[in-house]
Design brief:
Layout lengths: L1 E8 L4 E7 L2 E8 L2 E7 L2 H10 L5 H17 L1
Antiparallel strand pairs: 1-2, 2-3, 3-4
């Protein structure tokens, strides 16, 4: 079963954090590029987003803000 943690969409792209079987699935995409990876922790997935050259600072900040907002709601 896959659980959505957050799904951030902007004009620049989309970043999703999902949970499956205790692992964090990262899915990011934008015009002309896609990225999917699996991580042991949410922190490592967030670091991966920061290291993706296609992800702008604004998209990264929006994705982390959305992730924090979802965490506070739970």
């Amino acid at each position: 079963m896959i659980r959505h943690l957050s799904d951030t969409r902007t004009a620049e792209g989309r970043v999703r954090f999902l949970l499956q079987n205790g692992q964090v699935l990262l899915s990011a995409e934008g015009p002309g590029w896609t990225h999917q990876s699996t991580h042991l922790t949410l922190e490592r997935a967030a670091l991966q987003v920061a290291l993706l050259p296609q992800v702008s600072q604004a998209l990264y900040e929006s994705a982390l803000s959305e992730l924090e907002r979802q965490a506070q709601m739970e």
